[in-house]
Design goal:
The chain is 34% helix and 14% strand. It is built from 15 helices and 17 strands. A five-stranded parallel β-sheet has the order 2-1-3-4-5, with helices on both faces. The longest helix has 18 residues, at 167-184. It has helices at 38-52, 75-83, 93-96, 99-111, 167-184, 192-201, 218-230, 246-259, 282-294, 319-325, 340-351, 370-381, 414-422, 440-444, 463-472, and strands at residues 16-20, 59-61, 86-91, 122-123, 145-146, 148-150, 156-158, 207-210, 234-236, 262-266, 301-304, 333-336, 360-363, 387-390, 404-409, 429-434, 451-455. The chain folds into three domains: 16-184, Rossmann fold (3-Layer(aba) Sandwich); 208-350, Toll/interleukin-1 receptor homology (TIR) domain (Rossmann fold), CATH 3.40.50.10140; 354-472, Toll/interleukin-1 receptor homology (TIR) domain (Rossmann fold, 3-Layer(aba) Sandwich). The protein has 483 residues and is of the alpha/beta class. It starts with 15 loop residues before the first strand and ends in an 11-residue tail after the last helix.
Length: 483
């Protein structure tokens, strides 16, 4: 069989595969309890296949339900497209009707001179040749990976339609895609015996308590659990089920919380049932017990309150308001409002940080500070620094003790700023740049251990001013006298 893709050498970029898809292709079929949306099933299976082959460092970037279709093409998405080593468009009739999807491929093509070999075409449906992006036309045309066949009568048979229809054909094709990704990213795979030896020699595995989730976030919990286990972490409880009675349930939870070094709690919209004999929901019970455990030992808690939940039918909610309904934010707790894919990446980077490189992180606590952050990050990058940008709502990258996090504080209120600061890993050098305006009383009374407040009249507009600021706060060493 002729390979549907040309060979491409190692990427030279981060090992990220950006999946471009139309949201309509990820709708869960109605009245099908076991079937998943096409894209989600594909993403889960491809992630498992890569991990099973020893290539878990290959990151699959999938934006799910985070951005409304009417919103602008955000810097976050464009940044992910630009930094990706490969782009995998899921072609369908829905895809070709989406200007958003087309733009993702256009941006990727502009950034990569060799984009022809970096676009991995996956066909959910059959398309006419002229419906495809320019990068796949003419001399660049190729078969790609087709999740359907036509029989001798011209009838189309899809490998996945309301669930798996042709298991062997689907997974054979998936393995070919995984193999191609591994080759493109130049990932060196250790033999199975060597992988087992590396695992046995690795440090003690991290133990994460994933609270049992209510019905609407149950799938998200399972997905997160799969990701964390693939990263060689221990997830407890092992399933999304607890004992029926309140007494047995509480005993099990207390025992498991003593093992955990971090707990994650899922805050949805629908109140869940209470265990027999109990007066509080399972969701509230778990959070209360985690807070009690934290009173006697260090137990960080992540309160995941995603902005988009099925119960609200596309309406956006405020994560901080959701947390207030659960008793407000306590010491040692962090709020996370982004999609489960970002939560997974953030948690994994938190426990598997890269500490061999000094970086400067510039982070925004509210939407209105994104422009300030982008400007400061670009100017700092022009001074030869390795810079990472965290726009409002982005996951916080892993940072080491030699890294600095700059947070412009303009109009954000104290609670929003505190929520961002709580997400910064311990050990990083964190500086808030206090700008005029906003809640001046809160700024005058601000104090937080390990966080420094630097008052500035305005952020610099050029590289010279940026250097002066970074020298002042000791991010950069002063330049020596000119000869």
């Amino acid at each position: 069989m002729v390979d549907p893709m040309p060979h491409v050498s190692g990427s030279g970029r981060a090992g990220t595969v950006f999946i471009s898809y139309a949201r309509a292709d990820d709708q869960k079929p109605p009245y099908e309890d076991t079937a998943q949306g096409w894209v989600r099933f594909f993403w889960d299976q491809l992630r498992w296949e890569l991990t099973d082959r020893g290539a878990k460092q290959a990151r699959l970037w999938l934006d799910r339900y985070e951005i409304e279709p009417a919103e602008a093409f955000t810097q976050k998405i464009e940044g992910a497209v630009r930094e990706a080593a490969l782009i995998l468009p899921v072609f369908s009739q829905n895809w070709v009707q989406s200007d958003w999807c087309k733009r993702e491929v256009e941006v990727f093509t502009r950034v990569h001179p060799d984009a022809t070999s970096r676009v991995v075409p996956v066909f959910k449906n059959e398309l006419l040749r002229d419906q495809l992006p320019q990068v796949l036309l003419g001399d660049n045309a190729r078969e790609g990976y087709r999740f359907f066949t036509r029989d001798e009568h011209g009838a189309v048979h899809e490998f996945y339609w309301r669930g798996l229809q042709d298991r062997k054909a689907y997974f054979d094709l998936l393995r070919r895609i995984a193999t191609y990704i591994i080759e493109c990213l130049d990932i060196q795979i250790a033999p199975p015996k060597e992988r087992r030896r590396q695992r046995e020699a690795s440090p003690a595995r991290r133990v994460i308590f994933l609270a049992v989730a209510d019905q609407e976030l149950r799938d998200a919990r399972q997905r997160l659990a799969n990701d964390l286990r693939a990263a060689d972490m221990v997830v407890i409880p092992e399933t999304n089920e607890l004992p029926d009675t309140a007494a047995d349930c509480e005993q099990l939870l207390r025992e498991q919380l003593t093992r955990a070094e971090l707990s994650v709690h899922f805050l949805g919209e629908n109140p869940d049932i209470s265990p027999t004999g109990g007066s509080e929901s399972i969701i509230d019970l778990q959070l209360r017990l985690a807070r009690e455990a934290a009173a006697t030992r260090r137990l960080p808690r992540i309160l995941w309150a995603p902005r988009w939940v099925p119960a609200l039918h596309g309406e956006k909610r405020d994560p901080l308001e959701v947390v207030r309904r659960s008793g407000g934010l306590r010491a040692g707790e962090e709020v996370y409002g982004e999609e489960v894919t970002d939560l997974s990446q953030w948690l994994r980077s938190r426990f598997l940080p890269t500490r061999d490189e000094e970086i400067l992180v510039v982070a925004a606590s509210i939407d209105g500070d994104d422009d300030l952050v982008a400007s400061l990050a670009n100017l700092s990058q022009g001074l030869g620094l390795k810079v990472s940008v965290v726009f409002h709502g982005d996951p916080m990258p892993a940072v080491g003790p030699d890294s600095t996090v700059l947070v412009p504080w303009d109009q954000a209120d104290r609670a929003t700023l505190e929520a961002l600061l709580a997400r910064i890993p311990a050990g990083a050098h964190t500086i808030c740049l206090r700008l005029p305006g906003g809640d001046e009383a809160a700024k005058r009374r601000f104090f937080r251990n390990g966080v420094f407040l630097e008052q500035v009249d305005m952020l610099p507009k050029d590289r010279q001013g940026t250097r002066a600021l970074l020298e002042k706060i000791e991010v950069l060493a002063p330049e020596g006298p000119t000869q």
